[in-house]
Amino acid sequence: MLLILGWMIFALTVSAIAVNALFMLISPRHWFALPDWIRAQGTLTKKDFGTGGGAIQVRTAGGLALGIIIWVLYDALLRHR
Question: What is the C-alpha R_g of the chain?
Answer without folding.
Answer: 15
